[in-house]
TrEMBL record, chain A:
Pfam families: SBP_bac_5. SUPFAM superfamilies: Periplasmic binding protein-like II. Transmembrane segments: none annotated. It comes from the Bacteria. GO terms for biological process: peptide transport. GO terms for cellular component: ATP-binding cassette (ABC) transporter complex; outer membrane-bounded periplasmic space. GO terms for molecular function: peptide transmembrane transporter activity. This is ABC transporter substrate-binding protein. The lineage of its organism: Bacteria, Pseudomonadati, Pseudomonadota, Gammaproteobacteria, Alteromonadales. Residues 81-459 form the Solute-binding protein family domain.
From TrEMBL, chain B:
GO terms for molecular function: dipeptide transmembrane transporter activity. The keyword Transmembrane helix applies. GO terms for cellular component: plasma membrane. Residues 81-313 form the ABC transmembrane type-1 domain. InterPro entries: BPD_transp_1_N (IPR045621), MetI-like (IPR000515), MetI-like_sf (IPR035906). The chain crosses the membrane at residues 87-108, 117-143, 190-209, 252-270, 290-314. It is a multi-pass membrane protein. It comes from Thalassotalea marina. The keyword Glycoprotein does not apply. PANTHER family: DIPEPTIDE TRANSPORT SYSTEM PERMEASE PROTEIN DPPB-RELATED, PUTRESCINE EXPORT SYSTEM PERMEASE PROTEIN SAPB. This is Antimicrobial peptide ABC transporter permease SapB. It comes from the Bacteria.
Automatic annotation (TrEMBL), chain C:
It is a multi-pass membrane protein. Signal peptide: none annotated. CDD domains: TM_PBP2 (cd06261). SUPFAM superfamilies: MetI-like. Belongs to the binding-protein-dependent transport system permease family. OppBC subfamily. This is Antimicrobial peptide ABC transporter permease SapC. The chain crosses the membrane at residues 28-49, 97-122, 134-155, 161-181, 222-241, 261-283. Residues 95-284 form the ABC transmembrane type-1 domain. InterPro entries: BP-dependent_transpt_permease, MetI-like, MetI-like_sf, OppC_N.
Length: 542, 327, 297
């Protein structure tokens, strides 16, 4: 008996020794490879790896500034327009002709599936924009044939022609002056693809690979993508600016908020998107919490094609019944950066105007309106809450619960619906929802970016306008504003447009907020950007 | 097995939506394509024929494409199932080497303090909800102590090509210069989820082993051995353990089904890229083709393990062999 | 009730009464049993006992820690969650959802299972053997997996979860009833009443059921602990009770996002589940033990 126990003890001891050994080896081991690898724990799975086709932040974060470059970019310091692939540009006096002079010796990615034979030239730029504009181009209808951002700003109607002047000069001719044109080209969506790669794909008849196995000029190139689990990027050694010093950049797709924080605390991630429990991060000496003032809006959008929500009285009634201060206190608590939204425009926009109509919290008004609209007590609202965290809405499901409780007071029962992000967007575009908690982050400083992509008729067609609301007066106002460069006139047009929104209530603005991110101390460099997606260019690990 | 296929086939009728879409996963197909699929699955013939076509597809390894990702379900299963097999086998191993000896000790010290203590602990272990245990384990071992990683199969910095799908084998046959680092890293990743899964089955093994050992110790040949004057140690090690083990092995198969269920839930929490995690994600997305395929794969896996343990039992125990032939 | 025994007659307690006699001998089991009874009372009277509404938000008091904590508030004994809902009230209400419903589910599936089981015990031939094989397959699939699949068919929701678990538990009862009935039928006293000309149904009712109840009840306690776990797990996976409902598993899942700022939202529902399962298992264990004693006597 005694030896039996002694044996057992011995085994225990042995097994614990093995454990310690393994753990010991590991802590020395990973260091050597992970020293130069950055793991970014992201919040969702990119649906496709080409930002031309998507406006979802997940796709933009993963691709736009990593795999690709645009002709021009926003300077991260002052948000002015800065050179990127175009080293300079020239705009004619009438604002109708813009000529870009391309940088020499910009190389595309060399990967297992593609080897470029020539540097970037005007053909590639032409190819990239023709994909969006030219319905006869082979790639136009590949991957759905929808270009939500470009369609929402009316890109096709704006461009008269794009000409190749010589190998490194390209000229855009516009039908009319557009004050947001340059800003639109500097957004994450206007990426430059490789024409040579496109030709290779035509030969092998694998057209859809243009968007799933992308080739760009960006600081990183694609190594491996497993939807739902990870995205592995390698540095692009021939990058035209300074090549990255990292060995790998990995997007570890972790939709769970707690999961991301756990991974950060356990040291499995270097950076995490949209952290929760900020206090936990700030009190940890190894971690830093960063934030950037992002131009965004979190809103409750109604599906204006579905009865009874096609009746503006019902929409207004619901808006009256929502206790916005309570939502702000609960959802954005601790992240004091959030402020209640008066309209869809954040205060940091130059067109901001607090002299617009708003809707106050009043259960009585809500009940009156519902009565006028002839709604009994049996109205059920399918409220879709987005499953990912966004700065403008850090916890849509909890927000939905609050709204559920609010609307119960006026006799509307709310069913909360949620799917994974990809599926959510797909079904949303089909219009399966009654109302949805969503938001929008601006891609450039022009206020039009809050109007056209969100609420114009054109974007209702592409499904980016999830309210499917289409109002001609409103669209005309937007157009008039784009036609002029007079700031005061534009501000007035936007004020009128906002009043139409407040009256029609296709969406109920809730809050504007900062974008947060948490990272380890040893990671240097600016990842967050005020506009558009994150960037790992120039990030170093020490 | 046969009934299983009927079951999954009939599932495609039960699920909401179009039967054809459910079984093939083609949701965005044009009418012409749909017609082609209809022909392929014998849509225009009787249900029996349709079932026959379904079986044919199965044998060709064609389970349709996932409604969500539009990738072939069979491929998805092949990339996820090995991770589950790996996890469950390790967990089973842990449950057995921890549970059986403890059960034997309890039996030898029958009705003494040790026995009672072990029984009470096994009762608690058996009652803990696995998802809660997993969360607590992460909190203690990953966050507070920082010993073990909290999620995934291996740190993503290691790039391991998937060949067999069983990560440990893949690492060993890969040509990465960081082979041993990767191996250690994978080991630390599997410890926590495997232990969490193993806890409940281990407590069951404790009970099984205890009961088996008690009945063996009660048998005549042990009494005879005792009468001959052999000491306890000799009796236990030479005679009792062997015979008691045989009885425990018989129930391993049954426990395995339990283990797989626990693994499904645990995979979700530990973000383990296994079939349970994948199946539950498919349910969230109402991906019916994937659910059917995943269910079929998972049940067949359990079934195969059942048969395997039956064989092992038979080969270990001549008595069982005899009775099998007799029936 | 006092009973005057005029004759020195040896009294044979009914099998059930005998079971109870054996059952109450072990103190630990009795502790489990009183916890079990306590939970049943809780689940019946939960709306009366609980101090606050379990689903109403109270935004003035969000994320309060339990009362024994420095920042705690005595009027919220176990603290509040991120919407200011009192944890104690939610847990008490959760008793009727998780524990109470599992009880209902078990009884429902027991009734159906016993009926099917005894009918199938009376039939022979292909039908019976098909049923047998069918049951074998069903029993080999883990109950949770099966429940998940049924929920996948019916769609998530509490009602569907309950039906799924009922369906999952039925085969176990069919199996055990069938075996027990077949076994009893072979015994001599059944033969005796058969010779008296009693019909099968009559035999089933008067001779067999009283003798197999204890087996079925013992199975029911096992089924109950499985049912609690299944309801909670489905709730946790977000396939069970819908969002505002204070079902323990769903509460736990809801608490995960608050794990680092309000750990009690995770600890408490987990403890509640653990407590309910241990109580049920203790009762089951005691039942098993008592059955064994009965057999040995």
């Amino acid at each position: 008996m005694a030896t039996n126990f002694a044996n057992l003890r011995f085994y225990r001891w042995l097994s614990s020794l093995v454990l310690v050994l393994i753990a010991g080896c590991d802590s020395q081991g990973t260091a050597s490879l992970s020293e130069n690898s950055v793991i970014y724990c992201s919040e969702g799975t990119p649906a496709i790896l080409n930002p031309q086709l998507e406006t979802s932040g997940v796709t933009i974060d993963a691709t736009a500034k990593q795999l690709y470059n645009q002709l021009i970019a926003f300077d991260p310091k002052d948000n002015s327009i800065a050179p990127s692939l175009a080293k300079s540009w020239h705009v004619t006096k009438d604002n109708k002709k813009i000529t870009f002079y391309l940088r020499q010796n910009v190389f595309f990615h060399q990967t297992e599936y593609f080897t470029p034979t020539r540097p970037l030239n005007a053909d590639d730029v032409l190819f990239s924009f023709n994909r969006i504009l030219d319905r006869t181009q082979v790639f136009h209808y590949v991957s759905g044939g929808k270009y939500p951002f470009f369609q929402s700003v009316g890109f096709a109607e704006l461009i008269e022609s794009i000409e190749r002047i010589n190998d490194h000069t390209i000229r855009f001719t516009l039908k009319r002056a557009d004050s947001s044109f340059l800003a639109n080209l500097a957004t994450d969506f206007a990426v430059i693809l490789s024409k040579e790669y496109g030709e290779q794909l035509i030969k092998t008849n694998e057209l859809e690979k243009l968007d799933t196995q992308p080739i760009g000029t960006g600081p990183f190139k694609l190594k491996e993508y497993r939807a739902g689990s990870y995205l592995r990027l390698m540095p692009h050694d021939n990058y035209w600016a300074t090549p990255s010093s990292l060995k790998q950049l990995i997007y570890d797709i972790t939709p769970s908020n707690t999961g991301r924080l756990t991974k950060l605390l356990a040291g499995e991630c270097d950076v995490i998107a949209y952290p929760i429990a900020h206090q936990k991060i700030t009190e940890n000496p190894l971690l830093t919490l960063e934030s950037v003032t992002a131009m965004n809006i979190g809103y409750l959008g109604f599906n204006t094609t579905k009865p009874p929500f096609n009746d503006k009285r019902v929409r207004r009634a619901i808006a009256h019944a929502i206790n916005k201060p309570a939502i702000l206190n609960t959802i954005y608590k601790g992240d004091s950066a959030a402020e209640p939204a008066v309209s869809i425009l954040p205060p940091s926009s130059w067109a901001y105007n607090d002299n617009v109509d708003t809707i106050d919290y009043s259960i009585d008004k809500a009940k009156d309106l519902l009565e006028q609209a002839g709604i009994g007590s049996d109205l059920t609202l399918n409220l879709w809450a987005m499953p990912v965290q966004r700065s403008y809405n850090p916890d849509a499901v909890t927000m939905a619960k609050l709204i559920q409780a609010d609307l119960k007071k006026v006799g509307i029962s709310v069913k909360i619906v949620t799917y994974n992000w990809q599926e959510f967007l797909r079904r949303l575009a089909l219009g399966e929802h009654d109302a949805v908690l969503l938001g929008w982050s601006a891609d450039h400083p022009d206020p039009d970016n809050f109007f056209s992509p969100l609420l114009s008729c054109a974007s209702a067609e592409t499904g980016n306008n999830r309210t499917f609301w289409c109002n001609e007066t409103f669209d005309d106002l937007l157009q008039s504003s784009l036609d002029t460069t007079d700031m005061n006139a534009r501000r007035e047009y936007y004020r009128q447009a906002l009043n139409i929104v407040a009256d029609e209530m296709p969406l109920f603005p809730i809050a504007h907020s900062k974008r947060f991110q948490a990272k380890k101390h040893n990671l240097k460099g600016n990842i967050l950007r005020s506009y558009g997606g994150i960037s790992f260019e120039g990030v170093e690990k020490h | 097995m046969f009934i299983l296929t009927i079951l999954t086939f009939s599932l495609s009728f039960f699920f909401p939506g179009e039967h054809l879409a459910n079984i093939s996963g083609q949701i965005n197909a044009t009418p012409e394509q749909l017609e082609l699929v209809a022909l392929e699955y014998g849509k225009h013939e009787s249900v029996l024929y349709q079932y026959w076509y379904y079986l044919n597809h199965l044998f060709q390894g064609n389970l349709g494409v996932s409604m969500n990702s539009q990738l072939p379900v069979a491929d998805e299963i092949m990339s996820h199932l090995p991770a589950t097999i790996e996890l469950t086998l390790v967990a089973l191993f842990i449950a057995m080497i921890a549970g059986i000896p403890i059960g034997f000790i309890a039996a030898i010290r029958h009705r003494k303090k040790t026995d009672n203590l072990i029984l009470s602990f096994s009762m608690i272990g058996y009652s803990i909800p696995v998802f809660w245990l997993a969360l607590l384990a992460i909190l203690v071992f990953s966050i507070q102590l920082g010993w073990l990683p909290s999620a995934g199969q291996i740190s993503l910095v290691y790039e391991i090509e998937q060949v067999t799908g069983i990560l440990f084998i893949d690492i060993l046959i890969s040509d990465t210069p960081y082979k041993w680092q990767a191996f250690n890293n994978a080991t630390t990743h599997i410890i926590l989820p495997a232990c969490v899964i193993a806890l409940a089955p281990a407590t069951i093994f404790v009970r099984l082993a205890r009961t088996a050992m008690l009945s063996v110790l009660d048998s005549h040949y042990i009494k005879a051995a005792m009468a001959k004057g052999l000491n306890t140690r000799q009796i236990v090690f030479r005679h009792a353990i062997r015979n008691a083990m045989v009885n425990v092995i018989r129930d391993v198969g049954l426990q395995f089904a339990n283990l797989v269920t626990l693994a499904m839930v645990t995979e979700v929490i530990f973000n383990w890229p296994g079939i349970g995690n994948w199946l539950i994600q498919s349910i969230y997305q109402r991906d019916y083709t994937a659910i059917q395929g995943g269910l079929l794969a998972l049940s067949s896996f359990i079934f195969i393990v059942h048969i395997l343990t039956d064989f092992i039992y038979a080969s270990l125990n001549p008595l069982a062999r005899g009775s099998k032939h007799a029936s | 009730m006092r009973r005057d025994n005029i004759y020195t007659e040896e009294e044979f307690p009914s099998p059930l009464a005998e079971l109870w006699q054996n059952f109450k001998q072990s103190p630990i089991v009795m502790v489990g049993f009183s916890c079990f009874a306590f939970l049943i009372l809780f689940s019946i009277f939960s709306p009366i006992i609980s101090p606050y509404s379990p689903i109403e938000n109270n935004l003035d008091h969000i994320l309060l820690p339990p009362a024994w904590h420095d920042d705690g508030n005595v009027s919220f004994l176990l603290g509040t969650d991120n919407l200011g809902r009192d944890m104690l009230s939610r847990i008490i209400h959760g008793t009727s959802l998780t524990f109470g419903l599992s009880f209902v589910v078990v009884i429902l599936s027991m009734i159906i299972g016993v009926i099917i089981g005894s009918l199938s015990a009376l039939t022979r031939g292909i039908k019976s053997s098909f049923l047998n094989h069918f049951l074998d397959v069903i029993l080999s699939i883990p109950s949770l997996l099966l429940a998940i699949v049924i929920v996948a068919i019916l769609g998530p929701g509490l009602n569907n979860t309950l039906w799924a678990i009922v369906m999952v538990l039925i085969p176990q009862f069919v199996h055990i009833t069938r075996n027990a009935v077949v076994q009893e039928f072979k015994k001599d006293y059944v033969l005796a009443s058969k010779l008296d000309g009693a019909s099968s149904i009559r035999i089933l009712h008067y001779s067999i059921f009283p003798n197999i109840t204890e087996k079925i009840i013992s199975q029911a306690t096992l089924a109950q602990s499985a049912a609690i776990l299944d309801i909670a797990t489905l709730g946790f996976l977000g396939l069970g009770a819908p969002i505002p409902m204070p079902e323990w598993g769903a509460m736990l899942a809801n608490g995960i996002d608050l794990f680092y700022i309000a750990p009690w939202t995770v600890y408490l529902p987990g403890l509640a589940i653990l407590f309910a399962i241990i109580a049920t298992n203790l009762v089951g264990e005691g039942m098993k033990h008592a059955l064994k004693m009965q057999r040995e006597n």
